[in-house]
UniProtKB/TrEMBL annotation:
It is a single-pass membrane protein. The lineage of its organism: Eukaryota, Sar, Stramenopiles, Ochrophyta, Bacillariophyta. This is Alpha-1,3/1,6-mannosyltransferase ALG2. InterPro entries: ALG2, Glyco_trans_1. Mannosylates Man(2)GlcNAc(2)-dolichol diphosphate and Man(1)GlcNAc(2)-dolichol diphosphate to form Man(3)GlcNAc(2)-dolichol diphosphate. One of its GO terms (molecular function) is GDP-Man:Man(1)GlcNAc(2)-PP-Dol alpha-1,3-mannosyltransferase activity. PANTHER family: ALPHA-1,3/1,6-MANNOSYLTRANSFERASE ALG2 (PTHR45918), ALPHA-1,3_1,6-MANNOSYLTRANSFERASE ALG2 (PTHR45918:SF1). GO terms for cellular component: endoplasmic reticulum membrane. Residues 268-284 have a biased composition (Low complexity). It comes from the Eukaryota.
């Protein structure tokens, strides 16, 4: 599809760190800004070259040069001239009392206000993560522009007591002791707080002209928790095309990747150069896990799988002859300002050292981000020479990430109910087979037995050793199978690369993205001409929001009255 000229798109994203959401936003920005041949030929293309296609502005509250993607790292990042940091003074939470969701909503509102004020002639506003600023753009800004909200996953399903929408098995609901009544009362207040924030999320999202999600899995979760978004729109609001049945606003746009490997393949193809096969999937290459250091990423699973493999090798159980266990490398985004990153990284190091100590192996190695690629390569070579080991690479750069995947024998992706997951695509693009949990987005990207292996999820069971957990054994068996048959692993990696090129390439991504931008712009124009949103879903979600707020207030008043009337004994037994 030919991209319409003179289109100004404003992206609003809270934190431009390192992660799947940030990678997607930057790919959307590049797809908006660059012509088809520029983004695939060089990441150093200038904004002037692409100005005839579209113009962009990226607004964020935080972008650290030491913890961001190369595209936005000043001064040479392709997108760095378009990044505007506003509202960095707003706190992330209220420290001891929490309130992260409320502070995030406050930051998003302020960021949206500034973005709208500084870009009064923008054609489309693209907001992701939180929809709090959407109603302001639609109702209080007199701008003839479309509003597109990209939902990576409902924030309602991302509370601290859940793992991507399911209750965390480690959550302790049994509180005893003198402070139990206070703790239970605070839990009720937290429920009321989340109730209000969840209602505001659905109400805000309903104002969007177009809602885009990253997978069919995420679309199903949105439909479960926010059913009002799937109600038919006003009969006067004619669909813009034949695929817009009942004015449906929730669409799927799979994220795409544009690595240096895929760009090189395209250049070789255009120049009729024979593409040499990747040397990855070698039995001597490391086992790689790429994830942010967050508990929901379930990185401990791959450590326990490595423990199971060490146990097999140590006892020579079902191990192929002359097969050496390669090192395990755990890499990914790490922000020292993020408390969870710091805590979870320390937990993983403790677990890794305990596993290695069990087999009389040296302690785990940590490569700081400041170390050069040559130093990291030397450490990897020493690890291969000395046998099994565990290496941590926090805050890995794009260059090191590409190098790491190009030398890997297998990539392990451990999150459960992951919304989409960009890492499996990056691994398959590097011709590396992937082992992942059979749930969420990986079920839409990985073909089991063809481009990798999908393993059934089993929750932790205190009655068995972690290395005997069915999921852990499934990962260990899959890794062992790939290591013991390098030729089959190489063929699997090649099929994965072909799947990425065919289904998740930038050309397909760019075409679909411009179709969505054009539709959002048209919907915004029609809404502006009509003078109001007039969606039944908006009315219904507003009613639900008012109702939820009312019930929350009544419930809080009832609990307070009951505690005063009947005493804390009644409250404790009731809860």
């Amino acid at each position: 599809m030919a991209a319409p000229s003179n289109t100004h798109v404003v992206f609003i994203h809270l934190d431009l760190g390192i992660g799947g959401a940030e990678s997607l936003v930057l790919n959307l920005a590049k797809a908006t800004l660059l012509p088809e041949d520029a983004s695939s030929s060089s990441t150093s293309a200038t904004a002037d070259t692409a100005s005839s296609i579209g113009s962009i502005s990226i607004y964020t509250t935080h972008c650290s040069p030491s913890h961001c993607y190369d595209e936005v790292r000043p001064p040479n990042g392709l997108l760095s001239p378009h990044v505007h940091v506003r509202g960095s003074w707003i706190p992330r939470n209220f420290y001891l009392i929490g309130g992260t969701a409320l502070c995030s909503a406050w930051r998003m509102l302020y960021l949206t206000y500034i973005a709208a004020k500084e870009n009064p002639t923008a054609n489309v506003f693209v907001i992701d993560v939180l929809p709090t600023g959407v109603p302001y753009l639609v109702e209080w800004c007199n701008v003839n522009s479309g509003v597109l909200f990209y939902c990576h996953f409902p924030d309602k399903l991302l509370t601290r007591d859940t793992v991507n929408g399911e209750m965390d098995a480690t959550t302790n609901n049994n509180v005893v002791g003198a402070s139990s009544r206070l703790v239970k009362y605070l839990r009720w207040l937290k429920r009321l707080y989340r109730w209000v924030m969840d209602a505001i999320e659905e109400w805000s999202m309903s104002y969007s002209d177009l809602i885009v999600v990253n997978s069919l899995f995420t679309r199903g979760e949105v439909e479960k928790v926010f059913p009002s978004l799937f109600l038919p729109r006003n009969i006067m609001d004619e669909p813009t095309n034949s695929s817009d049945r009942h004015g449906e606003r929730v669409r799927v746009l799979y994220p795409s990747i544009e690595s240096s490997l895929s760009r090189q393949r395209k250049m070789n193809t255009n120049n009729s150069v024979t593409v040499t096969e990747s040397s990855s999937s070698s039995s001597s290459g490391p086992i790689v896990s790429l994830n942010r250091f967050e508990r929901k990423k379930n990185i401990a699973l791959v450590l326990h799988a490595y423990d199971a493999l060490l146990h097999r090798f140590n006892n020579e159980e079902n191990v192929s002859e002359n097969l050496l266990l390669p090192p395990l490398i755990i890499a990914g985004g790490y922000d020292p300002l993020n408390v969870e990153n710091v805590e979870y990284f320390a937990e993983l190091r403790t677990l890794a050292d305990a596993i290695l100590n069990r087999y009389n192996l040296p302690q785990s190695i940590v490569c700081s981000p400041s170390k050069s690629s040559s130093v990291v390569n030397d450490i990897l070579l020493d690890a291969k020479a000395n046998g099994p080991c565990i290496i941590f690479l926090p805050s890995i750069s794009d260059a090191k990430r590409t190098t790491l995947l190009s030398t890997a024998s297998v990539s392990c992706y451990t999150p459960y109910r992951e919304h989409f997951g960009i890492v499996p695509l990056e691994a398959m693009d590097a011709s590396v087979p992937v082992v992942a949990i059979r749930s969420g987005g990986p079920m839409e990207t990985i073909v089991d037995g063809v481009t990798g292996y999908l393993v059934d999820y089993s929750p932790d069971d205190a009655r068995v050793l972690p290395r005997d957990n069915p999921s852990v054994l499934g990962f260990a068996n899959a890794i062992d199978k790939l290591l013991s048959n390098p030729s089959a692993a190489k063929a699997m990696g090649q099929r994965g690369r072909e799947r990425v090129d065919q289904e998740f390439g930038m050309e397909t991504f760019r075409r679909q993205w411009w179709e969505l931008l054009s539709e959002a712009r048209e919907r915004g124009s029609r809404r502006h001409r009509r003078g109001c949103t007039s969606y039944p879903s908006l009315i219904w979600s507003s009613v639900r929001t008012v109702g939820d707020l009312g019930w929350a207030v009544l419930l809080a008043l009832f609990i307070t009255w009951a505690m005063k009337r009947f005493g804390t004994t009644w409250y404790s037994s009731a809860v």
